[in-house]
Design goal:
2 domains; alpha+beta; two-stranded antiparallel sheet; four-stranded antiparallel sheet; 239 residues
Length: 239
């Protein structure tokens, strides 16, 4: 009888554990932040990726459209990213809009600016669906924002490695573009993956991010957009 009571208690505890786990799963699913409403963003970020850094990575080696053959890109448009107010939901995976409206004609609006169709498809699904318009309008805005930026001379065709701090890179952009205030520029760097200790791998320029309002005028970045470049960054040459 005592043995039977012990078995009964164990079975009750196991059943409670499964029920609790299931209930927790439902609570977690219910608490997942919703996507923000498309078009309800505060401002935009034009992300300019330094292509030589990308092309030196494993992902770049696999992207022959951007990094193969005779293609020799410097800065390219990574994308135009809506930045939403804090607490308005998560746009980490797009905004749940229709991702099927991207045509070749829409993609052609950023030809030579966004160098691969894989990148164009990704940016439309992750950021374009949050913009609040169709693909043609979104990529037209990407092109317009890109055309407002003059790439500094030192980044147009470097053939040798050089180094620069985030402040020096920011200054190069503001001097080449008097309409861009310094607080509208954020510089991102990375350390490439490798088997050696991270401190032994050089910091490399990854991206320059420029903040704009909804009318595509340059403006100060919010707290979500900051430098991530702790030291002098290696600027790989265009090859």
């Amino acid at each position: 009888m005592r043995r039977l009571s012990i078995v009964t208690v164990v079975l009750v505890m196991v059943s409670w554990s499964f029920a609790h786990a299931a209930g927790t799963g439902e609570t977690m699913a219910a608490s997942k932040p919703p996507s923000p409403k498309p078009g309800s963003y505060d401002y935009l970020v034009l992300a300019l990726s330094w292509s030589p850094t990308f092309c030196a990575s494993g992902s770049g080696h696999a992207d022959r459209e951007q990094c193969g053959g005779t293609n020799k890109y410097g800065f390219v448009a990574h994308g135009l990213w809506p930045v939403f107010p804090r607490g308005s939901g998560s746009a980490a995976h797009g905004c749940g809009g229709d991702t099927g409206g991207l045509t070749d004609k829409s993609a052609d609006r950023v030809k030579g600016v966004m160098p691969s169709r894989k990148l164009i498809n990704h940016e439309w699904e992750k950021h374009g669906t949050c913009f609040g318009g169709d693909a043609s309008t979104y990529f037209g805005k990407v092109r317009t924002a890109w055309d407002k930026v003059k790439i500094p001379q030192k980044f147009k065709a470097p053939v040798q490695e050089s180094k620069a701090s985030a402040d020096q890179i920011r200054k190069a952009f503001t001097e080449a573009n008097p309409s861009i205030p310094g607080n509208a520029v954020a510089v991102n760097c990375l350390r490439p993956r490798g088997k050696t200790d991270a401190s032994d791998r050089p910091l490399e320029l990854k991206e320059v991010r420029l903040c704009l309002d909804k009318d595509l005028n340059f403006k100060a970045c919010g707290s979500q957009v900051r430098d991530h470049c702790g030291g002098d960054a290696l600027i790989l040459p265009i090859r």
